[in-house]
Design a protein that fits this description.
globular, RidA family protein, RutC-like_sf, two-stranded antiparallel sheet, 22% helix, 60s Ribosomal Protein L30, Chain: A, YjgF/YER057c/UK114, 4-stranded mixed sheet, 6 strands
Length: 136
């Protein structure tokens, strides 16, 4: 059986080039869940304090590293959940995601959630990801 992720955007739902409405995994493969990523290095240095654009860029680089560590690529990604601290400019976060999103063959399913705060007051955004790695 072929393994695929099918992206759907029904005519009745909002169409936006930045995200898909539905992603369906089919076939043999592995679903990869990447836990919430923050703009922090492995040495505990916080990147982009006070700058949601830089934090978003850094987090998405970490997500790409996580995917690569599973022998997956950004094209295997199909779902992002983005937590943004209340009061942050969502447009600035989206600006930080542009370079990453342009790498994708299909825009992922995205959920954005505004939260009162995250685990560290210097974190302005946290992103979870889900990917489907096809068996060869």
């Amino acid at each position: 059986m072929n393994s695929t992720v099918e992206f759907l955007n029904p005519d009745e739902l909002l169409k936006n080039p930045a995200f898909s409405q539905i992603a369906i995994t089919k076939g043999n493969g592995s679903t990869i869940y990447i836990g919430g990523q923050n703009a922090i290095t492995k040495d505990l240095e916080i990147i982009g304090k006070g700058d949601i654009t830089l934090q978003t860029e850094y987090i998405l680089k970490n997500i790409e590293i996580a995917l690569n560590s599973c022998d997956a690529t950004v094209d295997d990604l199909f779902k992002l959940t983005i937590y943004i601290v209340q009061g942050q400019d969502v447009r600035k976060g989206f600006e930080g995601a542009q370079g990453f999103l342009k790498k994708l063959s299909n825009p992922p399913v995205i959920t954005g959630i505004v939260v009162a705060g995250l685990a560290n007051p210097d974190y302005l955004v946290e992103i979870e990801a889900v990917a489907f790695k096809r068996e060869k």
